[in-house]
Amino acid sequence: MKAIHRENLGPALVSLVLLCAGCMAFWLLAGPVLSGSAGQGYDIQRMMLYYSTLPRLATALLAGAALALSGALFQQVLRNPLADPTTLGVSAGANLALVVVSLFIPGLLGAGRDIVALLGSSAAAAIVVGFGARRGFSPYSLVLSGLVLSLWCGGLSAILTYLNQRYLASLFIWGAGSLAQQSWVIPLSLIWKVGTVAIICALVIRPLSLLDLGESSSAALGVRLARLRIVVVACAVALAAFVTSAVGVIGFIGLVAPTLARLSGARRPVQLIFWSPLIGAGLLFLADSVLQLAAGGFGDFLPTGAVTAIFGSPLLLALLPRLKIRHRMQQPAARRHPPTWNIKVPVAIAAVSVLVLVTAGLLVGRGPGGGWTVLSGEFLDKLLAIRAPKVFAALASGAMLAVAGSILQRLTGNEMASPEVLGISAGATFGVAIALFAIAPGFSGQFAFAVGGAISVLTVILLSSRRSTFAPERVLLAGIALSAMVDAIVGVLSSTGDPRAVLLMRWMSGSTYLVDGTIATAEAAIGAALIAVALAARRWLDILPLGPAPTAAVGIPLARSRLALFGLSGLMTAAATLTVGPLSFVGLMGPHLAREAGLTRALPQMIGAALIGAGLMVAADFVGRTIVAPYQIPAGLVSALIGAPCLMFLLSRRR
């Protein structure tokens, strides 16, 4: 009994500290109004307190508890400490469904936003869990599928918002997680929905606890695993959908709250599921109270979801070295039937495909009447001068991102590692944001700031993961935390209304619209030089994945070689992000496709990945420029829409 009390003491203390800190911040907000004398007649301050501030804080408590419970359920039933509504794509699916319905079938919103969000979340969860079931619910396949789906849904939502700004502009702040309220309608609707799901969770807590014994042992005790997974996943999806429908996407709570509960002493599933909602409620309550206190009258215009990530990311990074992860990432199984062709065949096919795509990008387009035309005649030189910089900048950027992804995956032994997933692209974005808001430099200055941001993120990841010898789980968790924090800071900057925020958002979408000959030449030169250096390091990349002992035996300096290769990947990421933004997805897609083609050694894999990445970005630029002409869809977003379904298909085929 004393041991049980000690186990609960830590989570209880964390919950109490968070809730007390939130109450102190709330008292600073509401104290002057409550302690003042009541006004005669219509008291605007008390009306704002009763019908805006209090409902907002109640919504924060309910939303935080629901998201934390959702994350705890996902982590327990899927046996994955990285699972939460954000990493599994559930929140992104709900957001996309609401954006699509708002644009094309607005009448359905009147029938019920919860139904729309629930359908979107359920579809996303079905896709991710379906892929996970084909590979025994391995943490690797689940989180990779979830991140891919999140990126795809986010890219499609961004494209729809970009093309319909007049109708969907108001969704920007809401989509980032806005808790602003004008009445008690939303908290009152949330309380019974969350309460109903919590009751269902209480009924399945015992069989859920038996999963710690293993699938065979729990099945021998009478647990019906398939039915249990369906019920628990449905509860977790419903909680995330209800919150997304009410206040938008608030990420990170479902990941941080169970992690804090586990680190503070919650060991058994019943403890994790009980304390995680309390900690999640305290986290979101504190974040929103501090936001309102600091922002004053602008609190309604700052996304609380972004501020939550700013609070939670450093906390998770600080506690990461103490986290004992029980569920090791599973490496994908080796091919049973390796390809019989020579490795030169897929490389030649990729090279020819890139040549065809470049030719089409330069010569094929839309005419004044909207029909397809092949470039010729007297306007050939002028149109080529416009198209060529965009095509070759996309070519160089795609190649650099793919090679950077190959380096990161080989160094970490983690097929999920890429500039996008590990937050390196987000770090470059943060550097560019500082450049735009601070001194507004040209291309060289932006490149320097982007390099600084990318290298900073890499440094933090290395420092937080070195004690675990760069275990894939810790590297990935650090990348997710940093990416969320950087994206949150950029989101706060973008919501300020500063005119430079418009430029930042356009750049983040990955548009090549403003690329000229000078930028394209610089991008191509940087890409050629950095890729050449990467190819020269092929011996390191073949030996380093074997481990420290073989590396030292052949005379390779382990620390210096890792540092140099990580720095090289950061340089390539920064240079590519300047042109195609942080959402390109090529750094994850290119190495996977090269590996599927049988290119496993470092040199052929990097060459194949570079060609695939270059071709994917050129194709994305061409499609974005022509598919809805005269409008242009950013190439970075289009590449995510092209690459994600392809990678999901490959994952579904792998055993």
CATH superfamily of the largest domain: ABC transporter involved in vitamin B12 uptake, BtuC
Mean pLDDT: 77
Total count of helical runs of at least 4 residues: 28
Task: Give the CATH topology of the largest domain.
Answer: ABC transporter involved in vitamin B12 uptake, BtuC
The biggest beta sheet, please? 2 strands, antiparallel
The helix-and-strand class reads: mainly alpha
Number of strands: 2
Tell me the Rg in angstroms: 25 Å
Q: Indicate how many domains the architecture comprises.
A: 2
Distance between the termini: 46 Å
Poorly predicted runs:
326-338
Pfam families: FecCD
Organism: Neorhizobium galegae bv. officinalis bv. officinalis str. HAMBI 1141
GO biological process, one term: siderophore-iron import into cell
GO molecular function, one term: transmembrane transporter activity
How does this model look, in words?
The chain has 655 residues and is mainly α. The protein has helices at 2-35, 44-78, 90-104, 107-111, 113-134, 139-163, 165-168, 171-175, 185-203, 205-209, 215-220, 225-247, 253-263, 269-295, 304-319, 344-363, 380-412, 424-438, 443-465, 472-494, 499-508, 517-536, 538-543, 548-553, 558-580, 586-596, 602-626, 635-653; strands at 364-366, 372-374. It has a two-stranded antiparallel ribbon. The radius of gyration is 25 Å and the shape is globular. It is found in: Cell membrane.
